[in-house]
Amino acid sequence: MADLPNCPACNSSYTYEDGGLFICPECGNEWTLESGAESGEDVKVFKDANGNVLQDGDTVIVIKDLKVKGTSSVLKMGTKVKGIRLVDGDHDIDCKIDGFGAMKLKSEFVKKA
């Protein structure tokens, strides 16, 4: 019996080979030997309005006035936001803004500082 690789998605050792594919019966993941561990990890790249890649902890600047939902206040253009955190979803930046508190922003409305 050949030594089969563990599942890249759930690390199960109960994988089996079917033709050119490896299959995990526990999570249902299918992969080829060439794709290996890369198929289990889909890394999303977050970009600002200018196309620069954003990372956790970056400092960004708001590029247009944004209405704050639920209040009558406006987040002004040019506001600097420090220590962002990237998350999946429609609003992909979690941050704290002085004077406003915790907020979620869309990466299309910021540029990297």
TrEMBL record:
Gene3D superfamilies: 2.20.25.10, SH3 Domains (2.30.30.40). Residues 4-32 form the Protein YjdM N-terminal domain. InterPro entries: YjdM, YjdM_C, YjdM_N. It comes from the Bacteria. Residues 47-113 form the Protein YjdM C-terminal domain. Belongs to the YjdM family. PANTHER family: PROTEIN YJDM, PROTEIN YJDM-RELATED. This is Zinc ribbon domain-containing protein YjdM.
